[in-house]
Amino acid sequence: MTYEYPPVSPPPRRSPVGGPPAGRPGGSDDIEWGRLAGGGIAASIVAALVPVVGLLIARGVFSVEVFVRHHDGSLVTVTSGTYALAGFVAGLLAAALMILLVILRVPAAKLFFGAIVILVTVIAVVSPFSTGVGTDSAVATASINAAIGAAILILMSSVTGEVVRR
Q: What residue segments make up the domains of the chain, in order of their start?
């Protein structure tokens, strides 16, 4: 007489960056958390480099200064480091937003992410024209802001498409 033991189920898998166990609501069966976070950091690095290139073109090729509004309301010439830091932070915030949308299992998360990033980018593109700087400086600043927003949107959407399968 042979007795068959019931199969032993393995313990729940955990995601690489400590997400919830797989197989539960909000689980990580279909999300590669480590790759999503890594892609967000990589997109942030690109978003930091975009304004550096933009400033090189604006100042070096077109001899146009790029201004930003200081916290006291005055206009100041932006430095490459400050603009790069702003791009990096914008990339990290976008990555955090995408991760939040995925964690909450928002239907059509990429669509909502895209809409939010586009609206924030439009604000960043339009705002230089309300500062009172010359049109050439406003266009340069708006162009750099648009490039940062486009880089974040394209890269984070692509990363999410690769690592989140629903």
A: 33-163
Residue 74, amino acid: S
Instruction: Please choose, from the candidates 48, 130, 142, 62, the residue with its C-alpha nearest in 3D space to the C-alpha of residue 92.
Output: 48
Q: Is 6 left (phi over 0), alpha (psi -120 to 50) or beta?
A: beta
Task: Determine contact, residues 33/15, Cβ cutoff 8 Å.
Answer: yes
Q: Which pTM value belongs to this model?
A: 0.80
Strands (E), the chain: 67-69, 75-77
| Better-scored residue on pLDDT, 2 or 73 | 73
Strand intervals (E) in 17-138: 67-69, 75-77
> How far does the chain reach from its first CA to its final CA, in angstroms?
46
Cα distances (angstroms) measured from residue 44 to each of 37, 52, 117, 148? 11, 13, 14, 10
